[in-house]
Amino acid sequence: xxxxxxxxxxxxxxxxxxxxxxxxxxxxxxxxxxxxxxxxxxxxxxxxxxxxxxxxxxxxxxxxxxxxxxxxxxxxxxxxxxxxxxxxxxxxxxxxxxxxxxxxxxxxxxxxxxxxxxxxxxxxxxxxxxxxxxxxxxxxxxxxxxxxxxxxxxxxxxxxxxxxxxxxxxxxxxxxxxxxxxxxxxxxxxxxxxxxxxxxxxxxxxxxxxxxxxxxxxxxxxxxxxxxxxxxxxxxxxxxxxxxxxxxxxxxxxxxxxxxx
Length: 261
Ligand code: PGA
Fold this sequence. Notes:
Layout: E1 2-6, H1 9-26, E2 31-34, H2 38-54, E3 62-65, E4 67-69, H3 80-87, E5 99-100, H4 109-122, E6 128-131, E7 153-156, H5 159-165, E8 178-181, H6 184-188, E9 192-197, H7 203-211, E10 229-234, H8 244-253
Parallel strand pairs: 1-10, 2-3, 2-6, 3-5, 6-9, 9-10
Antiparallel strand pairs: 4-8, 7-8
Helix pairs in contact: 1-2
């Protein structure tokens, strides 16, 4: 795992967008794993800008989102399909047929989860998985006690997740209680993982995810097992990290990051 600390949330989003853009330019057929949430909005805004101003090309790119609420149709304004269409897909030259989210309206949810895994495999697996982190440390909706080898399945949302996401809904009881999510094992199969977190509200959980013991109580700790994982944080989200001087030194000195400083 490599932790990169940027001075501000904007600088963190810039870096994440530039890492994605570099991967996409290197491989136009990239299979990109996507995340939703407030943190990602600024990343998608930058990708849209890179598409408009620097012709970043999404025409051959395939995408798989981490998760979708159970019971919300794609057209529902609170669905993650709607979020993705609004923040990214409708603003770049991606072929919507190449964009995938689990179907939270499927009659047979278990079948839908297996189908999603199969679709990912058929595309050759995920090249780059973008990740946020919840205040309870989830990746996707891998809530506390998610098995570290879990695959795509239905999860009941934890109270802290419900509290975190309820403000997005007109009234808290509109929020679904369950979601389909890629499993921790599904995420760890991605060839590269890129997690972004900003703001003081994430400082405690970022420190636990990066420097704490691996535990199914905090699915993000499983990223410590991944061979190629970058965690991009702003100063505020980095404030509880014990090794920040070392992480800064690596970013400032390692040739891999020359093009990004
Ligand atoms: P946020 O969500 O970006 O809205 O904080 C992240 C997450 O819950 O994974």
